[in-house]
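User: Peptidase M56. Structure?
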Amino acid sequence: MSDLPLPGIESLTMTWAAHGWLALLAFTAAVLVVAALRKPCRRWFGAERAFQLWLLPPLALLTSQLPHVTASPVQLPPLVYTITSAVGAAAPHADVTGSFDWRATALPLWLAGVAVAFGFAVVAQRRYRERLHGATPMAEVSTSRPVVRAASAGVGPALVGVWRSRIVLPADFRQRYDATEQALILAHETMHARRGDGWWCLLAQMFVALLWCHPLAWWALVALRHDQELACDAAVLREHGTQRRSYANAMLKTQSAAFALPVGCTWSPRHPLTERIAMLKLPPPNRQRRHTGIIAICGLTMAVAGSVYAASTPVKGAEDSAKATTVYQLNLKVEQNADDGHASQPEGMSVELCMAPGKTGTVANRDHGWQIDATPSPEGGNRLRIDVAVMVAGKLVAKHRMDAKLGELAHVTDKGPDGVHDYTIEVTSLAGCPARVAAEASPARVTEHAKNASVRVVAEAVAAAAAWTLVNPDALGNGSVTLSFKDMPAGTAMQRLADLAGMKPIFESKQVRFEPK
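Assistant: Predicted structure:
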């Protein structure tokens, strides 16, 4: 036995699942675009323009979460139509087992993964900073960022941090590099700071932590750091283009970092040295090609953002992407039976509820103390998840989460903990609200009480009250029914009677005819 999730938690998991799915699709599409274009763009427009392609994944992800301007859905009050049999004393409390909701498990699992990914990044950053203990300032070096000499030759060169970033040089910086190479190393790390590469690294780590379960996110992190170094090299050579040989020598003399630096730029084996040196041999793109690259990337950015926004329009929150239905009708029937060895009249209630997706409809029969709450939630395609709760005399007697398909009957039966009472819940869900059409067919309202009366006779009484003519009343048959209509719209009563006979009413002006369902 299990209870349904609290409404707040349920709403949170539904929103998370819908928005998370859109985010994953948008991010995947954008990364695949970048993967396909990064090398051609580097060849045509230069490494700096190729690195700017990495704006696409975060932009696509954020665009997928933007609200869409749509017409407000019609907020219809729940339409309640009841037919009851004799209801006896309140039944004891009973819970009905609900179906498994993967979102209730996936959300905490995802949050745990985010925490672990962030934790590993924080630990790696702290481990690198611990290796800077004993570093001494280098006041003789004039740059826009503070420069320190590490206590070890295996640390640096690197740009560390974001807000108070500093340049770290190895302990043997003066001995390892000649004067020209020293200037180029400083120019490289200063260029990282000028380009805001520390912020790029921080943003990339945040996205990887949030999308830790997506393999492409981890590949994108490595590829971005690689393109970042190539772009920095290209920017340095635009200002020191005559010193390519010295720049290549400085690269060859620099050791790869032994520890990862999540937020910052360091020389790493993830940045293939052979490719960086090969890039030095290529002629840099001229100004015209660089400007053309800016225009091309801006156009691509707008195209990707527009496509993602358009593709995510039908799906927001828990709406049905296939139909964008603004209202559902639930035809519910709830029965309580006693299995005590004695024949007993089933006690129950039949209702029709019309409500917007995610909204709860409530119907109560005060005469007998029954209350039914139902909430439809689209699951995609033509499927719904329907949460139903039944109370009798203020006590919860049945609760269930049902998976239903539009137009088809779904039901569940379970026994209460006393072993005496069992409960049956049947529901047929429909897109739109046919019952509302029936309710508006006539302003007349009817009050009818019948016991073992003919369906046809009751239908003729309802038609007379609404000033209708029944075209083919024989289609209803002469089956007997026990029912109670209390101040009910005539159209609603007629539809209920047709349902009992397995027919559907067609309202045409002042005439009503019946057709098979």
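The longest strand covers residues 328-338. The two ends are 36 Å apart (CA to CA).
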